[in-house]
From TrEMBL:
Protein name, entry field: Reverse transcriptase
Highest taxon of source: Eukaryota
Amino acid sequence: MLGCRTNNTPIELGNKDRLFEGEPMNKTMYQQLVGKLIYLSHTSPDIAFVVSLVSQYMHDPGQGHLDAVHKILRYLKLSLGKELFFKKTKDSTIQVYTDANWAGSINDRKTTSGYCSMI
C-alpha cells in the first residue's frame, strides 16, 4: 500500500450500511490489520469511530470490510505525523467516560459502546 492514493476521510458520509457487503475473506489477515488500527486509534482519535465499525466484524469479515480497512489506511497515509503525543508529567490526571448503546447496531442489534479519555 506504499504507492496507493490517499483519502481525505476514513469513511464516506452515509456509507456505513454499504461498507459491509462482499465475499468472505482471510480472517487472520483482517484481524491483524484491525488489531493494529485499534492500537493506533489511541493516538489518532479521528479514526476511532470507523475502527470500531470494522472491528465489529472480526469473526466473519467480507471483502467490503477489507475495503473499508484499506480506506482507513489510505486516510492515515495522508495524515502522517499528525498523531497525539503524550508526555509524562507528575501532575497529569486521567478521566475516562464511557457510554453504551443497547442493541444499537443496525446490522445485528448488538450493543455498541464508546469511550472518551481526557488527560
